[in-house]
Write a structure and sequence with these properties.
Elements lengths: L1 E6 L2 E6 H6 L10 E6 L23 E7 L2 E6 L5 H20 L1 H13 L4 H4 L1
Antiparallel strand pairs: 1-2, 1-3, 3-5, 4-5
Length: 123
Amino acid sequence: MNLQLDKAAMPSVADSRDIARHPRRVHSQGPVYVLVLDGVCANSVFCDKPAPSWDHHVPGWAVSLTFDRFTLYEPTAGQSGRGGVVDALTSFAEAFGPTYGMNETYAAAGLLKLRDSQPRVAR
């Protein structure tokens, strides 16, 4: 899952794994879009995994564009900045389920730890 943040017309693209490693690099403001690669075989040379059951519906996010094996989501409730990224990560982690949403869950926890009032939620 890739997240795009727009800060002063300079978009930033980050993979959920990068956000988990470097949560402070996430911009504090700007709209958030999510780009999802629809493919269980994306990280594998030999595809022997069953396709996950997922209907591409994520509450709070709408499909904006689909192309090749990618789906671009836009926020439906004005999600932006770090809070919007946390919302994206938690929403998609829940939609993906525990097997496929692990990276998003850890990345959201990293961002929540940055908030003074959210360390318990992050744990």
